[in-house]
Amino acid sequence: MHQSGxxxxxxxxxxxxxxxxxxxxxxxxVLYFQPQPLSPDDAYLSYYDVRLTKEDVDTLRNDWLTDNVxxxxxxxxxxxxxxxxxxxxxVLLRPSMSFMLMQTPDPMTLKExxxxxxxxxxxxLPINDCHNVEIAEGGSHWSLLLVSxxxxxxxxxxxxxxxxxxxxxxxxxxxxxxxxxxxxxxxxKNTPQxxxxxxxxxxxxxxxxxxxxxxxxxxxxSAKISMSMESKNINSSAGRKxxxxxxxxxxKEGERRRSRSSSPxxxxxxxxxxxxxx
Length: 278
Fold this sequence. Notes:
The chain is an alpha/beta fold. Helices cover 34% and strands 13% of the residues. It contains seven helices and eight strands. The strands form two sheets. The protein has a five-stranded mixed sheet with strand order 3-4-5-6-7, with helices on both faces. Strands 2-1-8 form a three-stranded mixed sheet. Helix 4 (165-179) links the parallel strand 6 and strand 7 (184-187). Helix 1 packs antiparallel against helix 6 and helix 2 packs parallel to helix 5. Mean pLDDT is 87; it is low at 1-18 and 27-34.
């Protein structure tokens, strides 16, 4: 199930990028017309259930990541990576759903809005330190919670330890109620630490990709998996560039598809809507 449309903390909340993404530098796709300059609120790309604005994309250059950017990265991992493992039962919960889960007194009331966790083995939750649903740009720090349902353990990866321990405890309790299973929280103190005040969201995305692709999806079913990120070298600058590269690739792909299906006389209307991939 893909979550979209509800973003309670839209905006700014949130040293080797080891996990590879496709190399798009030699892509044959080109823009077929010169787009008009975009304002921060203009849509930049529609990718399945996520609609990125120009402001969202700009945060990837040197700012705190928005919930939309993290939602895009989860959508990308689901569509391009997780889909290649149809027998897996891993859920990447969107930031909006994680926030709503944490702020709802009775998480069971959200059951219809959330994925069916009946056969789920692992759940990724990006969590934020916003506590006020009335503040559109609330919160200042992202961290990652990975719930191993089969082991009944919640692993917390915080790049500014111990900033989000309270939030991790709250999220673990809520998901435990929803699953009707006790969960033990492990705050992993050896998680790689960011070197500035704005890379927390990037760390969440890099760690999520690494844990999903290099630990969970490629693991031998009979082998024990280390969930520690202690030995993972994270290059946040390279990570930002790789994420931007993915977005630009799909933006150009959306432009290519749109130009193939439209007449030359519709260019003015095309510029009002973002390139779309679905």
